[in-house]
Amino acid sequence: MKHAGIFLLLLSSPLLWAQETPATPAPQTATLQPQYNSDNTELEAELAELKQQADAGELDAAYQVYAAYAQKGMVAQAEAWFHRVIALKEALAESGNIAAMRELGLQYLRGDIYLQPNPQKAVTLLSRACELGDATSAIILGEHFKNYSPEDSKNFYTKAYQLHQAVVATIEPGKELTQKQRIALEILGNMEQEGLGTEQNAAAGIAHLEQADTPAARERLFQTYAKGIGVPQDLPKALSYAAQIADTAADSAALSKADRNAGQMAWLLADSYLNGKNGVTPNAELAKKYLDIADSLNIAPAIYCKALQLKNAGNAKDAYILFSRAASMGNPEARMHAALMKLHGEGIEKNEELAVEMLRQVAARHSEGQAWYVGRAPYELALYYERVGAKQQADEWYRVASDRNVVEAMAHRGLSHILPGSAAEWSPTLMYKWWKIGSDAGDPTCSRYLNLFIWVVIPLILIIVFGLPVLLVHILNKRAEKREQNEKN
Questions:
Q1: Does residue 36 sit within a domain?
Q2: In-domain check, residue 113
Q3: Measuring CA to CA, which of 183, 207, 397, 432 is 20 to 30 A from 451?
Q4: Could you give the count of Cα atoms lying within 13 Å of 337 in the half-sphere of its Cβ?
């Protein structure tokens, strides 16, 4: 979808009046009859007041009743109240309520859980809202028509652009911008960058986005300079917008636990200042600042990074807490570190059973490419099982580790192909293969085994294979000569 960015931006905009549809089992509309009440007396008592409000025409009350039934899995009642919500929206749209027209138009355009798509009705509702000056409906129609009616699509985008321009024209110098004006500036900036409803103009788009000064506008500006969209790539400038996003989150209690995007920006900044990436000079103070923000916003790589810092500083106890926290968020590197600390009791209480289970979980992530823990986890398991005398399990994990290019496991893998009692196939060729791979990768044990094999075992085999028969022939010949000599005498 070429213009998905602007379309998704509008769908998430506060200008778009919409409510989420609760999850509910798939309806069986062919067999259900409208049921506005249930047999659950306790639930009905809780919903009584809301139902009275809904009967009086209050849309929000009707929606809450529908949501209550949907969350309880009461399909018949949920469907009946869903259609009552639709009926109230239809009445509002008929009376000229633009928000109702837009919401209904979207629902008919995409379909809903109890509503079949009806593009014709959707276009009628959205077109009417557009005629009444709703720019969002115009953009939705522009998106809808772009694949099969480019001219209509262009006209609706142009209409949307003009309507947003009209809102921007109401801005008075020196006065604080309203939310509506900021959103209009934000959308104008996006449309100018993408060339929707107007000529593509990166400079004008950037100016409007900067004037909007909203979180979404700052994110768009970050992407603009990070990727070089219509302007030369400028990573330090991109990071300046990332800093604005992260700093806003840090200063806002409302965002402190919820704004994941701000957290990702904070982590990008922390990583950049820690390692001198993206055109910035390393700065320990700024790195710490943004690492703390990312940590507070539950960004797993940032938590893992802080844990590594604590571990390297000798604070194993606090490091393990952070490793465990990041591991609970799905970070495999953190789980690997936590497992090793538990396995060896590195500054914390040793627990081999828990550590082995954690290592197994990490080892199961075999599709993670060349990440270090992919092979290290099975190798650590092999070492553990070898230490406790579980040879068969150790051999199996050595095999997995060597298959994942862990050179330290290849010496054992080669031995397994020649030692008696091993479950691996007896094969000097495979033995040589694994020792050669390990030796070429710089493993000293594989190099030692390989040299021993080449300079001792192979000559010994050659002596046995070729020298022994010659010796036997020589001995037999000597005996024959001796017999002949004895016979002559």
A1: yes
A2: yes
A3: 397
A4: 27
Q: Assess if residue 24 is contained within a domain.
A: yes
Using DSSP's 3-state secondary structure scheme, residue 424 falls into: coil
Domain count within the chain: 2
Decide if 137 is inside a domain: no
Range of the domain at 103: 1-132
Q: Got the DSSP string for 234-261?
A: -HHHHHHHHHHHHHHHHH-TTTTTT-HH
Round to whole Å and give the CA distance between 404 and 407: 9
Angle at 408 between CA 404 and CA 410, to 5 degrees: 65
Angle between helices 41-55 and 59-71 (to 10 degrees): 160
What confidence tens digit (pLDDT) does each residue in 283-294 have?
Answer: 999 999 999 999
Residue 463: predicted pLDDT: 67
What number of CA atoms fall less than 13 Å from residue 260's CA on the CB side? 3
**Exposed (0-12), middle (13-18) or buried (19+): which is 15, by Cβ within 10 Å?**
middle
pTM value?
A: 0.69
- Output 484 or 364, whichever has higher pLDDT: 364
Q: Is the pLDDT of residue 276 over 60?
A: yes
Segment 427-461, tens digit of pLDDT: 888 888 888 888 888 888 888 887 887 777 666 66
